[in-house]
Amino acid sequence: MSLFSRAALGLGLLFLYAPIAALVVYSFNASALVTVWGGFSLKWYGILFQDGPLLAAALISLRVALASALIATLLGTLAALALGRSGRFLGRLLFTGLVYAPMVMPEVVTGLSLLLLFVGLGLDRGVGTIVIAHATLATGFVAVVVLARLRVLDQSLEEAAADLGAGPFRVLATVTLPLLAPAIAAGFLLAFTLSLDDLVVASFVSGPGATTLPMRLYSQVRLGVNPEINAASTLIVALVTVIALSASWLMARHQYR
Amino acid sequence: MRLVRLLPLLPYLWLGAFFLLPFIITLKISFSAAATAQPPYLPVLDWSAGPVGWAYFLEALDFANYETLAGDSLYRDAALSSLALAAAATLILVLIGLPIAHAMARAPGRWQPALVALVIVPFWTSFLIRIYAWIAILKPEGLLSGALMQLGLIASPLEIMNTQTAVLIGLTYAYLPFMVLPLYAVLNRLDPRLREAAADLGASPARVFWTVTLPLARPGLAAGALLCFIPMVGEFIIPDLLGGSDTLMLGRVLWSEFFSNRDWPLASAVAILLIVLVVGPVVLFREAEARREEAGK
Questions:
Q1: pTM higher than 0.90 for the full model?
Q2: N or C: which end of chain B has fewer CB within 10 A?
Q3: For chain B, how many structural domains are there in total?
Q4: Does residue A46 sit within a domain?
């Protein structure tokens, strides 16, 4: 590697990680001023665990993330199988668009239009509507992850099973799905973190009593930098890093076998 | 094979109901007038009234929201600055992302999975938290300002926070993985023999990059630019937290029309405008790519 390449990599990673590192470091700061180091302290974590509304919001977020990730995993896996194995079907182009579009659509647009739908249907807004919205957002991401694996999967395995007399359902259940399992698990984890992370769509479709963690954090962040938020952020970053590393491991393990 | 044909049905129905249908409703409501009622807009399409309800609905369609968007300089400025900021950030991302992706693709093979993971992890980490982290860095009494003053590089605190510069920094930071990963995916697959051949024929490393690597990296560059540009045009969190009151962007305008002014029809019209602004470049781009491919054959 040339010196230029090394510098590009080093500076790029520094740019990506320095802000997160600063946030983590200052969550252990004894001083209430976020930019003045007053010695090491865990007091903000103590305050955090006394913060009832924040903990309640975290619990709601975890419930929403679990439910929406399960739905998105089912829908995304089916969508990937459809795109990878169903060949031509009626409205395939529209289907492809519907799977990919939610990933790039500005969140304010998705959030507003889902809210208008829920109001039009007369649905009570709350945890349920956030789950529907997050499942819709994450389906495409799961589909992309599963489809990437499906594309490199040796199709002759499925053909062999079919030649030996297994019906399409049996091939799917005993050959295709087990081979896809790591990608499906990685897709689930991605859907889970996307839900945990979403502020904009949840703000639109939520109702009274359903405040998610990002919504709670946002209302405090707007008031300015606050060490308790740094402590909460540090815990979230730690959790998400563990999830992200598990997902990369799940996907990489299969590539090098 | 019947089962295989049924696979798309469930996601098709779900995405149709919760992604496509909502847009049709948004389009419809963008032609309504705001009202102090529940729901807060008129006319409401009355399905039970049958054709009479349809006729009434069509008659009462209201273009006032689009006239407001076209006439009020607030919305024009917001649209222009959204496009300008997203375009500028995309350009910066290309300039920063290319060397990083290029270096990743040239790194020893056993490092590459780790490097990819290092770029992906921040993308998984909460968006809100990553933008929040920049407030402590960019504010006048913040970390960057403090460090630069300690080094004696600046005499007075930095005035970046709550400016468009802060928004540009935030956009670049948040979307960097979306640019680096598609670029890396393409550069990683490039046949190294092509570069070697060019070098053997006497091309300097810079010339190899400009005449061989870069043209072959086009698809990744295009994918990265789209993945970044589209969501950035409608970005809300970054201009809201870093841009202060000076930065007008459409995502933020839509948010405040909805949450502060409670004008649902106008917010819907802004949403439609956003879709048109975003879909326009995408369609043009796909056309251009299709023509280029055609010409290449």
A1: no
A2: C
A3: 2
A4: no
Distance from CA of A94 to the nearest CA of B (A): 9
- Taking contacts as CB-CB distances below 8 angstroms, the residues of chain B near A221 are 128, 132, 135, 241
Beta strands in chain B (DSSP E): 33-34, 41-42
User: Which pair of structure tokens corresponds to residue B143?
Assistant: 């970390």
Q: Which residues of B touch A252 (CB under 8 A)?
A: 113, 117
Domain with B56, as residue range(s), is 25-62
* ipTM of the prediction greater than 0.85, yes or no: yes
Q: B287 vs chain A: nearest CA distance in angstroms?
A: 16
A108 touches chain B (CB under 8 A): yes
% of chain A exceeding 90 in pLDDT: 49
**Within this chain, do residues A15 and A56 fall inside the same structural domain, yes or no?**
no
Token couple for A246? 């598990």
Question: Which chain A residue shows the shortest CA-CA distance from B109?
Answer: A1
Q: Say if residue B52 is in the same domain as residue B90.
A: no
Question: A98 and chain B: CB distance < 8 Å anywhere?
Answer: yes
In terms of residue numbers, what domain contains A36? 1-41
| Residue ranges for chain B with pLDDT beneath 70 | 1-5, 36-40, 42-60, 286, 290, 293-294, 296-297
Q: How many domains does chain A have?
A: 2
Percent residues over pLDDT 70 in chain B: 88
Tell me the two tokens of residue B228: 């970044």
CATH of the domain at B281: 1.10.3720.10
Angle of helix B112-124 relative to helix A227-255, nearest 10 degrees, comes to: 140
Cα distance between residue A102 and residue A114, in whole Å: 12
